[in-house]
Amino acid sequence: WAANHHATFEVDKFALVQFSRAKRKNPATGRREELPGPNLVPGDVTIVPKDAAKLLGVYMDRKLIWNVQAAAAKAKGLKYMMAAKRLSLGKWGVPGRLGVQLYSGLVVP
């Protein structure tokens, strides 16, 4: 398909996430654990399964419980909140009313 449509793919950007909460018996320990699935080998490249991957700006983890996405959103919000705080601090910052507008426009959404 790629050759017929003149498409190229960056294999470095491929990600393999196996969405499952199933546990299997580990032969080494005899306990039920979440074991990683098999690697994907398209051609000369080996793609190892990951616990999470970013797809269209959303982090999807293998259990689909969204902890990775929540942590990324929290970090991004904290970054914007601290930037707005630095702009409105002290006698050199923006006045109070504009600081509230800045916070409402950047941090809250």
Structure notes:
The protein is of the alpha+beta class and 109 residues long. The protein has 2 domains: 1-64, no CATH class; 66-109. It is 31% helix and 11% strand. The protein contains 2 helices and 4 strands. It has helices at residues 67-88, 96-107; strands at 24-25, 32-33, 52-55, 58-61. A two-stranded antiparallel ribbon has the order 1-2. It has a two-stranded antiparallel ribbon with strand order 3-4. The longest helix has 22 residues, at 67-88. 1% of the residues are buried. The mean pLDDT is 84.
Keywords:
two-stranded antiparallel ribbon, 11% strand, alpha+beta, single chain, 109 residues
Please describe the topology of this protein.
Layout (H helix, E strand, L loop, with lengths): L23 E2 L6 E2 L18 E4 L2 E4 L5 H22 L7 H12 L2
Helix pairs in contact: 1-2
Gist of the model:
By secondary structure, this protein is of the alpha+beta class. It has helices at residues 67-88, 96-107; strands at 24-25, 32-33, 52-55, 58-61.
Termini gap: 41 Å
Tally the helices: what do you get?
Answer: 2
Proportion of β residues?
5-15%
Poorly predicted parts: none
Spatial order of strands in the largest sheet: 1-2
Rg of Cα set? 22 Å
Overall shape? elongated
Largest β sheet strand count, sense and barrel closure? 2 strands, antiparallel
What structural class results from the helix and strand content?
Answer: alpha+beta
Mean pLDDT, to the nearest integer, reads: 84
Order of helices and strands: EEEEHH
- How many beta-strand runs? 4
Compute the number of structural domains: 2
Summarize the amount of helix as a percent range: 25-40%
